[in-house]
Design brief:
Oligomer: single chain
CATH class: Alpha Beta
Distance between the termini: 75 Å
CATH topology: TIM Barrel
Order of helices and strands: EEEHEHEHEHEHEHEHHEHH
CATH superfamily: NADP-dependent oxidoreductase domain
Number of domains: 1
Helix content: 40-55%
Strand content: 5-15%
Number of strands: 10
Number of helices: 10
């Protein structure tokens, strides 16, 4: 069973899971995008800075799926210091499309202190029909507040880092987005399993996976990428898994513990680094005296 779509504040609906092209080499991006679409993904997420939009577009065409059946997201990343409109037109040309379904500001820093002005340019792209929906990525609460002060059109999503080990720090942002009808779109949701194995989240995730007889990565996933066809099919099959409130709470608690552990480790490393630098300073002073 596929993932549910999510209703956006502009009336459109976005697929609940997407195939991302971040870090996919150009020489294989086309084939991997085609494979993802052929196994059932109907949302492809790319970006100007990924440098593989052209290949992703070719993969979409090679899949044979009709344009209206696939949701395409790309992002303005400020590559080459190119402006919003120029970048959008270039992305459309590379993707081989007349429009994209969702166009995002990849990071607030790209706005160079003018979030309001940058967003106004995005609103113009939507009015022209070059993009169907507009949103942001990596925006904080303060960034969103600045944008919303003058926005005529609300961002439909804020694509953010979202996995169990950052849920606590992201909660104020998630709450603000909910208040303003902005959908959170998570990336790097598999970090606890791929980059931080052995952490507190492993236990509840494994217990849930064992109970439902599924792979651990099927328990937590939103925007993902993989070259493995079987793994892609498992990701899609995760739409059949419905966690109880208790199971979600167990993962959240484990994530919060992991987050606290990470902070303690960072603090210890900072203290050790400071001590090392101080020691080197004393040694350098001693040598100078000699």
């Amino acid at each position: 069973m596929p993932f549910d779509n999510f209703k956006l504040n502009d009336g459109r609906s976005i697929p609940g899971i997407g195939f991302g092209t971040w870090k996919i080499a150009r020489d294989v991006c086309g084939a991997q995008t085609q494979q993802a679409v052929e196994v059932g993904f109907d949302h492809v997420d790319t970006a100007q800075v990924y440098a593989n939009e052209e290949e992703a577009g070719q993969g979409l065409r090679d899949s044979g799926l009709k344009r209206e059946k696939v949701w395409v997201t790309t992002k303005w990343s400020g590559v080459g210091d190119k402006g919003v409109r120029e970048s959008c037109l270039e992305s459309l040309q590379k993707l081989g499309l007349d429009y994209v379904d969702l166009y995002l500001i990849h990071s607030p820093r790209l706005c160079k202190g003018d979030i309001e002005g940058t967003w106004a340019q995005f609103e113009l792209l939507k009015k022209e029909g070059l993009v169907k929906s507009i949103g942001v990525s990596n925006f904080s609460v303060d960034d969103l507040k600045t944008l919303l002060k003058t926005a005529k059109i609300k961002p439909v999503v804020n694509q953010i880092l979202l996995h169990p080990y950052v849920v606590t720090q992201q909660t104020p942002l998630l709450e603000y987005m909910q208040e303003n009808d902005i959908v959170p779109e998570g990336y790097s949701s598999l970090i606890p399993l791929t980059s931080k194995p052995g952490g507190p989240v492993d236990k509840p995730v494994k217990e849930i996976a064992d109970k439902y007889k599924v792979a651990p990565e099927q328990v937590a996933i939103i925007v993902t990428t993989s070259s493995n066809k079987d793994r892609l099919e498992r990701y899609l099959a995760a739409g059949d898994i419905h966690l109880t409130e208790a199971q979600v709470e167990a993962i959240d608690k484990a994530g919060a513990k992991g987050e606290r552990d990470d902070k303690r480790k960072k603090k210890a490393m900072d203290v050790a680094r400071y001590g090392l630098l101080a020691g080197l300073g004393v040694w350098a002073g001693f040598k100078l005296v000699l």
